[in-house]
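Backbone-to-sequence.
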């Protein structure tokens, strides 16, 4: 299912975004307490937009979602979904490079859902995220228990602390390891 580069292929977009997945990982339940109208938020490794669409509804007309993915095919799926939901003015779609996200915009909140284990250099990635978070901005990292061991997750959390992120809480998310950070 995942390519040798560790990135889950766009060919399984239907697995990543379907009604059963949205029941298990309900975006409103997971993000509702963190995202407010008018904010600028970042969906890292947005895939087919499971969280991007929900985030766009949460930020309202005055807010923005920056949806970033490395695969153009995932971004095309998201573009179609955004148009279908009438949310294309709220979602800024960006293709990232293999080693950099390449953002200059500052964000209030960033989500890295089931994707940090796919990046080639977690320290550089988390340092870049920390640099685009506004003061008191938040980052929620969620990783799948089936792919990321407790030890591997803790190493990533240590790296997050090293780049200046402060842990706030450990939200309970089904089948996942998660931690919320503040800048």
């Amino acid at each position: 299912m995942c390519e040798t580069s560790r990135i889950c292929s766009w060919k399984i977009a239907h697995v990543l975004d379907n009604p059963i997945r949205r029941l298990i990982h309900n975006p409103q339940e997971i993000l509702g307490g963190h995202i407010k109208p008018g904010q600028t938020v970042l969906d890292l490794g947005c895939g087919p937009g499971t969280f991007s669409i929900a985030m766009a509804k949460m930020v309202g007309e005055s807010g923005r979602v920056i949806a970033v993915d490395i695969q153009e095919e995932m971004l095309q799926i998201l573009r179609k979904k955004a148009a279908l939901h009438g949310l294309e003015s709220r979602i800024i779609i960006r293709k990232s490079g293999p080693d950099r996200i390449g953002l200059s915009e500052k964000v209030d909140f960033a989500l890295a859902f089931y994707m940090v284990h796919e990046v080639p250099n977690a320290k550089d990635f988390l340092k870049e995220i920390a640099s685009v978070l506004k003061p008191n901005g938040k980052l929620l990292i969620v990783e799948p228990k089936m792919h990321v061991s407790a030890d591997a997750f803790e190493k990533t959390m240590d790296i997050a602390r090293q780049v200046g992120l402060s842990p706030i809480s450990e939200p309970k998310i089904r089948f996942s390891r998660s931690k919320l950070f503040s800048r």
